[in-house]
Structures are given as C-alpha cells and as structure tokens.
Design brief:
Blueprint lengths: L1 H10 L1 H12 L3 H30 L2 H4 L1 H23 L4 H10 L3 H4 L4 H26 L7 H11 L23 E4 L7 H8 L6 E4 L19
Parallel strand pairs: 1-2
Length: 227
C-alpha cells in the first residue's frame, strides 16, 4: 500500500538510499537529499490521489467523520512537507545525520531549525499515516474485482439513477432499502415498463412526473410493428 511505502521512506530512508547508491554506483552523500525529495514527490502524489479518490467516492457515513478529518489533515501536511523540502536550504549530510541520530540527546542539543522542522513533519506524517492505515483496515472495502466493487456500490448507495427497464437488477442485489421511487417522463413510459421499478421490494412511495400532452410511448422496432 502507498501508506506503507511512504512510512518506509520516512523511517528507513538511509538504508534504502544506501542500497540505491550501491546499485547505481553514485556518491552516497551528494544524492541523499535528492533521493528524499524525489521519493517523497513520487509517493506523495500517488498517495494524495488515492486519498482523494476514497474521500470523493465513498460516503462520509461509511468513512466516518474522524477518518475524513485525519485524511484532510494528512493531505495538508504532505503539501507543507513537500514545500519545505524544496524551499529551504536543507543539507543532505545534515538530513542524513538527523535520520541516524534522531532521539539522541547529544544530537537534539545542537540540531538547527531546518532539521527540527523536518523531523516534526516526518513524525507527524508517519503518525497520520499509521492512523489512517489502521482506520482503513477496519473498513469493509471491496476487492479490485468488478463484481465486488459493484456489490459495494449498490450496498452503500442511497440514491440510484437508472432507466426503467434496467431497474430489474435492483430486485436481486443487497442494498440500502429504497423507499421512494421517482419516474421521470412517465407519460412516455408504457404501463408494462413502469411495473419493473415498482417491483423493487422496499418501495413505499412512488412519484410519477410527466406531461400528458407529450408524445406517448412509441415503438421504433420494425419487427415489433408486425405484432
């Protein structure tokens, strides 16, 4: 998962960078800051898209308000972190030392403002990422299969738009009970077709919208015209 990739980058960047340098045969010290920047941008961009997609297409009642707020806070934090990485005079060797000596007293007594700010962003980002990971694990999210996603969408939907003839699908899927049926352009709908959405088990009330002065329902099939 993207959250795991970002956490590994923030917590174990030194060893990952060393492996990268060994494989590319580049100088360890000169490239560390660029490695952090490039890795952060690549991961943060995908992570933002993922969070945005989840929060855009899933109802708040399912995600829960607290998780939504944490997600928004994380995205804001990632934006600030990225700006900080590129707008300050960070030094690669100092940044690397911060990773290696973080938490040790002798390091904390001489840390400069830039490194202190970096460590703050790092810790807060990891904290929000872990919180969000834990929260998403508790949700009953669908797998990547089409059937699983379709079933999930039906189950979570509180408003469904469809044509009358396709409403037969709603009779066999698990979903939130629909109590109100609204049929638009009802004057152009044949009586037999209107029975299809009316068969949805949980419907309690039906509203028909239409103009009796409009053209009535008509059949364009040449084959059907013989019957």
């Amino acid at each position: 998962m993207l959250q795991t990739v970002m956490i590994e980058l923030l917590e174990d960047c030194v060893s990952k960078h060393k492996s990268y340098c060994d494989s590319k045969n580049v100088n360890d010290g000169d490239s560390f800051l660029n490695y952090v920047r490039e890795g952060f941008i690549a991961t943060a961009s995908s992570l933002r898209n993922c969070i945005s997609t989840i929060f855009t297409h899933l109802p708040k009642t399912f995600i829960r308000e607290r998780n939504y707020e944490d997600g928004v806070a994380l995205m804001t934090l990632l934006d600030s972190f990225e700006s900080f990485l590129f707008q300050t005079s960070l030094v690669g060797e100092e940044l690397k030392e911060a990773y290696l000596l973080e938490g040790k007293f002798e390091f904390l007594t001489r840390v400069n403002v830039n490194i202190a700010t970096f460590l703050h962003f790092k810790r807060e980002s990891v904290r929000f990422l872990r919180t969000l990971m834990s929260a998403l694990d508790e949700l009953d999210l669908p797998t990547c299969s089409k059937d699983s996603i379709e079933e999930f969408c039906y189950r979570m939907a509180t408003l469904i738009f469809c044509i009358a003839s396709s409403a037969y699908k709603l009779q066999s899927v698990k979903m939130y009970p629909m109590k109100l049926l609204v049929i638009d352009e009802a004057a152009q709908l044949r009586e037999c077709e209107s029975l299809i959405p009316l068969q949805v088990p949980s419907i309690k009330h039906t509203v028909l919208l239409g103009d009796e002065c409009q053209l009535p329902a008509f059949v364009t099939s040449k084959v059907a015209s013989y019957f």
